[in-house]
Amino acid sequence: MPAVSSYSVLFYGSPVGYQTNRAQIQLNDATGKTLAWVRFNDPDMTFENDYVGDDGIIRMHMPSTMFLNVLDVLRNEKPLNVYFVQNRGFLGTTAEPVGEGE
Question: Model's pTM, two decimal places?
Fold first, then answer.
């Protein structure tokens, strides 16, 4: 599972967003290589299925209501991993001790 080392955020304006998306968080490894794009959609927007492109970049699609939750995890948790299994993108932590205080 590739480890996420950095991220960047992009918001799409206009009533329809961009390519069916409202916002995107790009996840990178320690060398700056793009691992995944987590894309967010409003309820009335078309949701694409998660997939890995020919470029090896994972595309995850989530509702816009999850944006702050994902951003909170990126800001406060480590290590983080991103991977693609059973036609779904996954972003998460590894096992952490209880009461770590993060």
Answer: 0.89
Q: Which two tokens stand for residue 42?
A: 């409003």
The DSSP output letter for 73 is H
pLDDT (tens digit, 9 = 90+) per residue, 30-78? 999 999 999 999 988 888 999 999 999 999 999 999 999 999 999 998 8
Residue type, 20: T
**Cα–Cα distance for residue pair 39/9, rounded to 1 Å:** 10
**The pairing of beta strand 80-85 with beta strand 34-41:** unpaired
Distance from C-alpha of 41 to C-alpha of 64, rounded to nearest angstrom: 5
Q: Which residues contact 23 (CB under 8 A, 6 or more apart)?
A: 9, 10, 11, 12, 17, 39, 40, 64, 67
Report d(CA 18, CA 95) in Å as an integer.
36
